[in-house]
Amino acid sequence: MILFLIEVFCIDFSNTLIKAIHMWFEFQIMKKIEAVVPAPKIEAVASAILETGIGGLTISDTKGRGQLERPVFASGRGTGVYRPAFNANATIMVVAKDDLVDKIVEKILSAASTGATGEGKIFVTDVAETVDIGSKKRGDSTL
Questions:
Q1: Where are the domains of the chain?
Q2: Which of 39, 60, 96, 138 has its CA 20 to 30 A from that of 83?
Q3: What does the pLDDT look like over 30-48, one tens digit per residue?
Q4: The pTM is what?
């Protein structure tokens, strides 16, 4: 238990230290937010994310298998039953400055969550650098 607490403290301290160094040298920390949500909720989630004022987002149709119940379809003349192996999901990817991450995550949660189990996941990771292909600019100015 003590080792776990030390590890958590070190991770938290290192994240704080990294943020302080970035702010001191005026680097912007960028994060990638990936949200996997059921396909019927994609329009509501995308609209909610765009309300934050970010420059854009990427949506991909995906399939997944989690705790959400998979639908059952009747086949033939109603004598057979088909249950797909995977649920239809959508994955939304956004890259944003660190100060917008909490706001974006809250918008996703408010648009997608009903409190039921298996409604999706949100992943937040660090982005080392971005490059705009057309303008060849680098860094947070590309967002």
A1: 29-142
A2: 60
A3: 899 999 998 889 999 999 9
A4: 0.71
